[in-house]
Design brief:
The chain is α/β, with parallel strands linked by helices. It folds into 3 domains: 8-82, Arc Repressor Mutant, subunit A (Orthogonal Bundle); 91-120, no CATH class; 126-285, 3-Layer(aba) Sandwich (Rossmann fold), CATH 3.40.50. Helix content is 56%, strand content 8%.
């Protein structure tokens, strides 16, 4: 949802009353939930056209959730824009406010603050040229192995899953019942290893990176320090901020870097990849894997 601080009570009312809305009113409500700032600056006809409904559907939607009409419904959105609430709130004040909001408010503020800082610190230390070099090597490789254990195992598998919607020969390791070094047994200088680990560093990841270098693979490493053993051994190293108030490293920055790296791979690839991704998703629609949105 975009700009969820815009008229939050109205948006919450829409979600609370969702099941009571007619299918057409749900289409209108979905557009409002996903584009709240547009409501305050667009006419009812413009919103209706964008949501692909009739203008009177918006009126019925507003009444179904307790407003006298569409203008009454739209008023809080316009007020939010006039009061500047549509922009992202001042971070320090926002975090301070939620820190006072009950027993778990302090934890919430700490978690949000850490996540935002991690993203900023991570991308402040990474330049686009470095990502492009790593992406180009991935694109020209024969196979890509993505290694993560513990919490990073899910990150590795998510990256591999997304990449596999348009590209072949991506492998998340360790495979079930295997070890990273065994999975790399027949890999060589035509291949790439993407490895990730944060303090305390996992020995199996360190050993796999060491073996990969001996076998000539290109190593792309994500870790939480420039002095991390896998960063020091990597051809392309990306330092991710992983601070958190909880008991295990945050994955927010790791996921963000992996997603950005994949977007760069697609950007440097051939047009065939875009076609493959489109065909992959068309196939899923035909097989009924996706719930179709009402027309």
């Amino acid at each position: 949802m975009n700009d969820t601080n815009v008229s939050s009570p109205v948006l919450e009312r829409l979600t609370d009353e969702w099941d009571a809305l007619t299918p057409e009113a749900q289409k209108a409500a979905r557009y409002v939930l996903e584009n709240p700032t547009e409501v305050g600056v667009s006419t009812v006809r413009e919103i209706a056209e964008a949501a692909k409904v009739k203008p009177n559907t918006l009126v019925r939607m507003a009444r179904q959730v307790g407003f006298t009409g569409y203008e009454d419904f739209r008023a809080p959105f316009r007020e939010a824009i006039r009061n500047n609430a549509a922009s992202f709130p001042d971070r320090a004040r926002w975090l301070q406010d939620i820190g006072k909001s009950g027993e778990l408010g302090g934890l919430y503020a700490d978690m949000v603050g850490a996540a935002l800082r991690n993203i900023e610190e991570t991308f402040a230390g990474i330049d686009a040229a470095s990502l492009q070099e790593a992406a180009q090597r991935i694109w020209t490789s024969r196979q890509v192995f993505t290694l993560g254990v513990g919490v990073n195992n899910a990150n590795a598998r998510n990256f591999t899953y997304l990449a596999s919607t348009g590209m072949k020969q991506f492998h998340a390791i360790p495979r079930p019942g295997s070890t990273p070094v065994d999975d790399l047994a027949w890999a060589d200088d035509q291949d790439v290893l993407i490895a990730m680990t944060c303090k305390p560093y996992r020995t199996e990841v360190i050993e796999a990176v060491k073996l990969a270098r001996e076998q000539g693979l290109t190593v792309i490493a994500l870790s939480d320090s420039p002095a991390s053993p896998i960063i020091l051994s990597a051809d392309h190293g990306f330092v991710v901020a992983a601070d958190t108030p909880q008991f295990f490293p945050s994955s927010v920055s790791t996921i963000a870097v992996l997603e950005t790296l994949l977007s760069f791979v697609i950007a440097v690839s051939s047009d065939e990849i875009v076609d493959r991704v489109e065909r992959f998703h068309r196939r899923r629609h035909l097989l009924g894997i996706y719930a179709e949105e009402p027309e």
